Amino acid sequence: MSEAADAEGTTGREIWIEKYRPQTLEDVYGQEDIVDRLRSYIEQDDLPHLLFAGPAGVGKTTSATAIARAVYGDDWRGNFLELNASDERGIDVVRDRIKNFARASFGGYDYRIIFLDEADSLTSDAQSALRRTMEQFSDNTRFVLSCNYSSKIIDPIQSRCAVFRFSPLGDDAVRKQVEAIAETEGIELTEDGLDALVYAAGGDMRRAINSLQAAATTGEVVDEEAVYLITSTARPEDIEEMVQSAIDGEFLAARSKLETLLVDTGMAGGDIIDQLHRSVWEFDLDERATVRLMERIGEADYRITEGANEQVQLEALLASLAAASDEYE
Questions:
Q1: Which CATH number fits domain 31-165: 3.40.50.300, 3.40.190.10, 1.25.40.10, 3.40.1280.10?
Q2: pLDDT tens-digit profile of 232-281?
């Protein structure tokens, strides 16, 4: 067990996603091509405005702070402003806080860095103001914008930035980091537990580390059962069994399995849809049948997203599969 955990007498008092957050670009897992390009900018002292786009937990914020550490060293906190646009999305933030920071005097460096997290939450007016601010202070300020969907960022801002698209982390990257943390913390992690963590993470390193920490508090061993329990995630085989029953025309059996997932496991309908989407290609279906299944999954996902009752939509999905069972034979 680590010194910190040992001193406190228990596992999990410290938030591991912060404790093990990479401090340098070289420590960022699973984004090698992006890291190489960012390192090249820093080495050439030619950092442009940056736009990081991608899902949660893949290294966008970590890369931004790592850039600041590389450029400023121990002075990075005084030359790096981090704002979360989802909390402060109004135009006043752009006009006031960002401009005040950009105008402030600083010594020894050609520019300061402003990191705007979740920039796709900015209103259209705020983005227009931000574009003008980027123009005004381009001589002494570099902007790093982070978002989940680059399509929500207006074109004038995108054209001023070097765009980096972060992809979900590969299983090997997640596995490597989780194993390293488990070893450092002295956690007994079984092979099936590691597989479950990687599956539950779905390419999100933050989710993997949080799940490991949560599972480590439930007992001495982190195994498959502990991971699926703590993450409210269904085993892939349970999802496959449910859909296979529907495909075979056994609607009542499929509905029973669905009710177990919703009530006993405590899963949300959207999570079931996500896992079902990941398992589509595991079924022994021809391409035509798989396309039809994907179409029904997409329809159910849209309706749930728009606010429809999750259980009703999922049962309707299974019913449509059962009713068309002859198509899958």
A1: 3.40.50.300
A2: 888 888 888 898 888 888 999 999 999 998 888 788 888 899 888 888 87
Q: pLDDT by residue (tens digit) across 183-235?
A: 999 999 999 999 999 999 989 999 999 999 999 887 778 999 889 888 888 88
Tokens found for residue 75? 């002075």
- 35 labeled part of a ligand binding site: no
- Is 61 a known ligand-binding residue? yes
Q: What CATH number labels 170-231? A: 1.10.8.60
**Backbone torsions φ then ψ of 80, nearest 5 degrees:** -135, 115
- The domain at 236-328 falls in which architecture? Up-down Bundle (1.20)
Q: Does 90 carry a binding-site annotation? A: no
Residue 107 assigned ligand-binding role = no
Do the beta carbons of residue 192 and residue 222 sit within 8 Å?
no
Alpha-carbon gap, residue 308 to 3, rounded angstroms: 49
Residue 58 annotated as binding?
yes
